[in-house]
Amino acid sequence: MSGNAIKKLNEDGANELFDCPNLAFMAKNNIAAITFLEKTIKGIERQVKSQVKLRKEFKMLLTIPGIGPILALTIMLEVGTIHRFEAVGDYSSYSRCVKSEKLTNGKKKGENNKKNGNKYLAWAYVEAANFAIRHSVAAHRFYQRKKAQRDGIVAIKALSNKICRASYTIMRDQVPYEEGLLFK
Fold first, then answer.
1. First vs last Cα of the chain: how many Å apart?
2. Global pTM?
3. Helix (H, G, I), strand (E, B), or coil: what is residue 108?
């Protein structure tokens, strides 16, 4: 069953799915837990939205597929002001979207501190990448191409870096997201 089909289930539907009463009982408990957590998450989001408002310079983030109000608020709160980053590479590095390696003549000579940067921005951009795969055909194609070359984790990180770099430009220049420029 898909995740959406599971979310649509109610406790009566669990009885119809399973012949065994123990499995139906466990399914009912899982459905109750999902329902409770969904209500709790919506309550937390409502509370956060009532206390924090998205600043003008961050509103354009909402044009990026995969970034909704909560991720945009997270990025806004963690970035502060985008002008403290001189270049897109500085922002991408701070967001932990790129590897921290020392290279000499194309050979790896060591790693820098992997813990530098902001773990919450790293999380936000990985979440945005996961949502973008579902809601953007171009992002999904990019992910599939990268996944065929390496693996799923590397592909997600590559897409999160693309979204991070795009969001830097969007925040700095106050321009809307253009999918054609990101996925050439």
1. 35
2. 0.80
3. strand
Report the SS3 class of residue 21. helix
- Do residues 28 and 11 lie in contact, with contact meaning Cβ atoms separated by under 8 Å? yes
| Cα separation, 151 vs 157, whole angstroms | 10
Residues of the chain with pLDDT under 50: none
Q: 3-state class of 106 per DSSP?
A: coil
Do 15 and 24 meet the contact criterion of CB atoms below 8 Å apart?
yes
Instruction: Say what the pLDDT of residue 160 is.
Output: 95
Per-residue pLDDT reduced to its tens digit, 31-61: 889 889 999 999 999 999 999 999 988 999 9
CB-based contact 164:74 (threshold 8 Å): no
Provide the pLDDT for residue 140. 94
Widest pairwise Cα distance in the chain? 65
The torsion of the CA quartet 8, 2, 74, 178, rounded to 10 degrees, works out to -110
The residue length of the chain stands at 184
